[in-house]
Write a structure and sequence with these properties.
The complex is a heterodimer. Chain A is α/β, with parallel strands linked by helices. Chain A contains nine helices and nine strands. In chain A, strand 5, helix 5 and strand 6 form a beta-alpha-beta unit. Chain B is of the alpha+beta class. Chain B is flat, with a radius of gyration of 15 Å. Classes of the chains: A alpha/beta, B alpha+beta.
């Protein structure tokens, strides 16, 4: 993607996006709070984005590596097993994201061989206005990857139209009950599947699912069935390295790592169904 | 960003069954792990992909970033 697209979209889009800070509807919590005026919603984020980590990584999906990841603090979910823990949930962590910070980091990432920049979290969608402003203010950008839990609103994601080359969607749960119990959100499945289909029509899409111990039948299998029906050709990365972190022990079945056999069975099942399973 | 903001340390967890989980893997970390006989074909494939990217970049003589899709 030519970075000139980012520039063309530019100032008008940034201004439109910043209106969300006055009445935030960026995600399906639909808090409607005035973040610029000091109010805080579910994610507790203010009207700025903070980067708590930035590095070039080679453990991402192979077609994306080496990828320069920008980790934004703050999230609109509360997954009890989150590996990011306090950094992910506390939007006050890290340095403020600015165009200058982004430009300097991108230059450094290029020197290290990064082929793209990737916005991750926490959840970058809650910081969409600040990210847009930084990208527009940065100038020369490599291709843009947006990794999201896709619990945002359509009107929020629409602000990214034309600015993202690859969406990476974390499809975490296969039903609303598990999403409510483990991540504290309602209407999960309808929201996330709607948004993932939107992303598939907008740009290249990669879907990821972290296998959770004890959730093969209730979560993984429905996800496979959904992918077979709606996105049979989309790359699907099945992550098998689940580790019990943060408050995972609250949900008893999540208190231990995923066993090797479950991981192998899951991957085999997805492949047998004809899905495009990637490493 | 550098120093304390970089978070350049990779996190490696070794599970009781011997599997190795890595969070935040740089190329150098992958190559260190490749020197250990972990028996993971995915790891070798990943490193080979990175080497091909490096060779392609060196041959082209630029740091073109127009394409992010690398077929393995």
């Amino acid at each position: 993607m030519a970075n000139s697209s980012v520039q063309r979209i530019g100032a008008d889009r940034v201004e439109l996006a910043r209106q969300q800070y006055r009445h935030c509807l960026l995600c399906e919590h639909r808090c409607g709070v005035d973040r610029a005026g000091g109010q805080r919603g579910f994610c507790q984020a203010a009207a700025e984005a903070r980067v708590y980590r930035c590095r070039v990584e080679c453990g991402e999906e192979i077609e994306l590596i080496p990828s320069q990841l920008f980790y934004l603090s703050g999230c609109n979910l509360r997954c009890v097993f989150c590996i990011g823990e306090a950094d992910a949930f506390d939007p006050a962590r890290g340095r403020p994201l600015t165009g200058q910070l982004l430009a300097e980091a991108v230059a450094d990432g290029r020197r290290q061989g990064a082929k793209n920049i990737q916005w991750v979290g926490g959840e970058p969608t809650i910081h969409l206005p600040a990210v847009l402003e930084a990208m527009v203010g940065c100038g020369d950008l490599p291709p843009v990857v947006w990794k999201s839990n896709f619990f945002g609103t359509i009107e929020g994601y629409a602000l990214l139209q034309g600015m993202v080359d690859v969406y990476v969607a974390d499809l975490k749960f296969g039903n609303d009950h598990c999403a409510r119990r483990i991540a504290g959100v309602e209407r999960y499945l309808q929201t996330v599947t709607r948004n993932i289909l939107w992303a598939a029509a907008e740009a290249r899409l990669i879907v990821r699912h972290l296998l959770l111990p004890g959730h093969g039948a209730c979560c993984f299998r429905p996800i496979v069935d959904w992918m077979c029906r709606w996105l049979p050709a989309a790359p699907l990365r099945i992550m098998t390295g689940y580790l019990p972190r943060w408050q995972a022990a609250v949900c008893g079945e999540l208190a231990a790592p995923l066993d090797r056999q479950s991981a192998a069975r899951a991957i085999a099942m997805a492949r047998d169904k004809g899905l495009n399973v990637i490493g | 960003m550098n120093g304390e903001d970089n978070g350049s340390t990779s996190e490696i967890n070794i599970l009781p069954d011997g599997r190795v989980c890595i969070f935040g893997a740089s190329r150098q970390v992958l190559e260190v792990l490749d020197a250990i006989p972990l028996g993971d074909p995915g790891l070798k494939g990943r490193i080979e992909c990175l080497r091909r990217i490096e060779e392609t970049t060196a041959t082209e003589g630029d740091s073109s970033t127009e394409s992010i899709c690398v077929k393995v």
